[in-house]
Write a structure and sequence with these properties.
The protein has 2 domains: 38 residues, no CATH class; 122 residues, 3-Layer(aba) Sandwich (Glutaredoxin), CATH 3.40.30.10. It contains 5 helices and 9 strands. The strands form 3 sheets. Strands 7-6-5-8-9 form a 5-stranded mixed beta sheet, with helices on one face. The protein has a two-stranded antiparallel ribbon with strand order 1-2. Strand 3 and strand 4 form a beta hairpin. InterPro entries: AhpC/TSA, Thioredoxin_domain, Thioredoxin_ResA/DsbE_sf. It comes from Marinobacter salexigens. This is TlpA family protein disulfide reductase.
Length: 171
């Protein structure tokens, strides 16, 4: 930080002096600018999520929709039961379903597994939870419900039905 120096020739004989009021104002301005810049740049960070196949998914592109982030595993019987429900929900224009494989299967193996299980909604190759400070679920199936403004509304455990989800989101 550079301090501004003023010359008060009539009082100091031309020697520079620091004006404490200007120094305080300058520090405040720098701190205020730094805070403003930090807040502004924080909003510019774009969260991109890896899909099992295809281009990355930009999280902000989902604003205006309900997002259901569903953790599943091949060995989880209730997970298998809710797949048709999530396939139907994903067809709605205001709902996006994202599947996360709990066993960390990735790439073509995940695409193949999803096809065998009848998953029609988008599967992610990475867990979005760490981006949003969500805890990894300890039970399956787990569904994180995000409102159109991008806020986590609820985390549900156990199989969900289309009726359960629609009752929560209002339609």
């Amino acid at each position: 930080m550079e301090l501004q120096l003023f010359v008060a020739s009539s009082l100091t004989g031309g020697f520079p002096v620091q004006n404490p009021v200007i120094r305080r104002l300058t520090r405040r301005a720098v701190v205020t600018a730094a805070v403003f810049l930090t807040v502004a740049l924080a909003g510019c960070q774009k969260v991109e999520l890896e899909r099992a196949d295809g281009p990355k998914l930009v999280w902000d592109d989902l604003r205006g929709q309900w997002v259901l982030v569903n953790y599943w595993a091949e060995w989880c019987k209730p997970c298998l039961e809710e797949i048709p429900e999530f396939n139907e929900l994903d067809k709605a224009p205001d709902i996006t379903v994202l599947g996360i494989n709990f066993d960390d299967v990735k790439g073509q193996a995940l695409v193949d597994l999803g096809k065998r299980m009848g998953i029609e909604y988008t599967m992610l190759g990475q867990d979005p939870g760490p981006e949003f400070d969500w805890k990894l679920p300890v039970a399956l199936p787990a569904t994180f419900i995000v409102n159109p403004e991008g806020d986590l509304v609820e985390a549900r455990f156990g199989p969900q039905t289309e009726a359960d989800i629609r009752a929560l989101i209002g339609g």
